[in-house]
């Protein structure tokens, strides 16, 4: 039985596909989250008065709506990642494992 080294695993096409797919989704979702979060932070920093404006004639302000929007966006991003991990990353991981089990 030949031992499999880390370098052999790193050069397998299935492993490379897994790492590329994981990097693609994590960078995309991270950038989207940073843009939304820092947009709200910059709005708080440079236009704080606009956040206190009430929506129509009610008591709910634009700031509350934006805060809830950020929370909902983060929940959406988490859901997208979970869906992608189950549909794309897990099958790729299983392919790597099957290939390693076949090599041992």
Automatic annotation (TrEMBL):
Keyword vocabulary terms for this entry: Membrane, Transmembrane, Transmembrane helix
Keyword Nucleus among UniProt keywords: no
Signal sequence bounds: none
TM region(s), chain numbering: 25-47, 59-84
GO CC term (a single one): plasma membrane
Protein name from the UniProt record: DUF485 domain-containing protein
Organism: Cellvibrio polysaccharolyticus
